[in-house]
Amino acid sequence: MPLRHSDDSKLEELYLNWFGDQKALTKGLPIVHRYRDGAMKIVRAHHTGESRVRGITIVLPMSAKGVRAFWNNDFDGRDISQEYLADSFATAHALYWWVSVAPGSALRALPLLRFALSQPPFDGKVTYAVAGSDAGMRILTHLGFEPMLDEGEPQAGTRFVSNFFATPERQRA
Known about the structure:
By secondary structure, the protein is α+β, with helices and mostly antiparallel strands. Helices cover 37% and strands 23% of the residues.
């Protein structure tokens, strides 16, 4: 479900609840506000007629410099430099995807998340993500992401890439 402009106070509350500190709020909120019409979705669970927030997913457009930084392991998804972001989804070289869902909600959220990434303006783009936990690795793997490892097993902090949502022309680029 998209976040509406009237939900600014809810957005700040969600950021504080999910990220836990003011630094993340002050650094992350301006970036999300810039792209929020397409970038942020709220994952909700409906129990007994009541809608509760169960997660947040954010997709940001990456510039060519951002893609290089990601490949060089210089990209920090918790503190993203503006130079790593494209001006719009239309000019993006790739996407950076961040998702956090409450325990027990991931399996129900997977179809929604997969569908969201296959729709405009996200479709046809190579997508990058970083697994922040074991659950994050399972989510990314189920969504068709592959770990960017030369050797060893994925662990928290592993970078992932997915060409699943890219068109054949983009995959060859």
